[in-house]
UniProtKB/TrEMBL annotation:
Coiled coil: none
Lineage: Bacteria, Pseudomonadati, Pseudomonadota, Alphaproteobacteria, Hyphomicrobiales
Domain LpxI C-terminal: 156-289
Residues covered by the LpxI N-terminal domain: 21-151
PANTHER family for this protein: BLL4848 PROTEIN, LPXI FAMILY PROTEIN
Protein name as it appears in the record: DUF1009 domain-containing protein
Origin species: Phyllobacterium sophorae
InterPro entries in alphabetical order: LpxI (IPR053174), LpxI_C (IPR010415), LpxI_C_sf (IPR043167), LpxI_N (IPR041255)
Length: 300
């Protein structure tokens, strides 16, 4: 485990967030957005970068680095740096080898054992267990949206120039029902419908890979109709402090490549990474982005 963090003055970047915040950073742009927001508000976040996952840009500031099999050292780092709050941001591509991780030198073995047992669960169960473990040591776990509230999808409506046509509305309905179903099974957070029929469900490979799969289906004429809609929403049992569904410019680009007409996301429970850039990309491509209201009765 390598750490380059140095003691720093604790600042309060937001009235509701007291004390210093650490960002446990996996892959993707979300950890970068959280770090930038905290710094803009006068905070001095500690980046705890997951080796092989975190974006290179995160290493420019004060940081520590741990591998997945060194998660037992996370608690030691947080205590040494006087951390009060923890944000889990970004994805993890690879789950660790359980036995190989349980060896001396990987930090607090009790914490490590609890973390690694969690990796045997589904995604939502994993996040709940990891959060519970971190909180059991006295740290407060925050959602990324609590630090950067403006990345949440806005109130229900259309956020692009183009609006959904009647066919797209039917596709949205079908894909949304499918997304709720797989979400309740802790499988994924997204689905795609074309011609009123669900043609793809998100699995562990993620949204971009699912969109690429749909593009291949079109190229091989397995999907004959044009159009279609991607729907993303939180799982009914979602732990909202981590792994909220997200879209960004790459989502728009892959949706265009898949021949879709638009994207529909859940208001206040989906993240838009790079809001202005994402909307601009959709407008340029003639794609719509709609937001819809969360329905507690069906989970999405």
């Amino acid at each position: 485990m390598t750490t380059r963090a140095k003691p720093a003055k604790v600042t309060n970047p937001h009235p509701a967030i007291a004390g210093r915040t650490a960002i446990v950073a996996g892959n993707g742009l979300l950890p970068v957005a959280v770090a930038e927001s905290l710094r803009q508000k006068g905070g001095n976040p500690l980046i705890v970068a997951i080796k092989g996952e975190a974006e290179p840009a995160l290493y420019a500031g004060e940081h520590a680095e741990i591998s997945i099999v060194e998660l037992g050292g996370l608690v030691k780092i947080l205590k040494a740096e006087g951390i009060s709050n923890v944000v889990l941001a970004g994805g993890i591509r690879h789950r660790p080898e359980f036995r190989a991780a349980l060896r001396p030198g990987n930090g607090n073995l009790v914490a490590l054992y609890r973390f690694l047992r969690a990796f045997r669960l589904g995604d939502d169960g994993l996040l709940r267990a990891v959060i519970s473990t971190i909180e059991s040591y006295g740290f407060r776990v925050l959602g990324a949206h609590e630090v950067v509230p403006d990345i949440l999808a806005p109130a229900p409506g259309t956020i692009t120039r183009k609006r959904a046509d009647p066919d797209s509305v039917a596709n949205m309905r079908a894909a949304r029902e499918a997304a709720v179903m797989i979400g309740s099974l802790d499988i994924g957070q997204a689905a795609i419908a074309v011609g009123g029929r669900v043609v793809a469900l998100e699995g562990v490979e993620g949204t971009d890979a699912m969109l690429q799969r749909v593009a291949e289906l079109r190229s091989t004429k397995r999907i004959n109709r044009k159009g279609g809609v991607l729907v993303k929403c939180a799982k009914p049992q979602q732990e909202v402090r981590a792994d909220l569904p997200a879209i960004g410019v790459s989502t728009v680009e892959n949706a265009v490549a898949a021949g879709l007409k638009g994207i529909a996301i859940e208001s206040d429970r989906t993240l838009i990474l790079g809001y202005a850039e994402t909307v601009a990309a959709a407008n340029e491509a003639g794609l719509f982005i709609e937001t819809f209201e969360h329905e507690a009765s069906n989970g999405c």
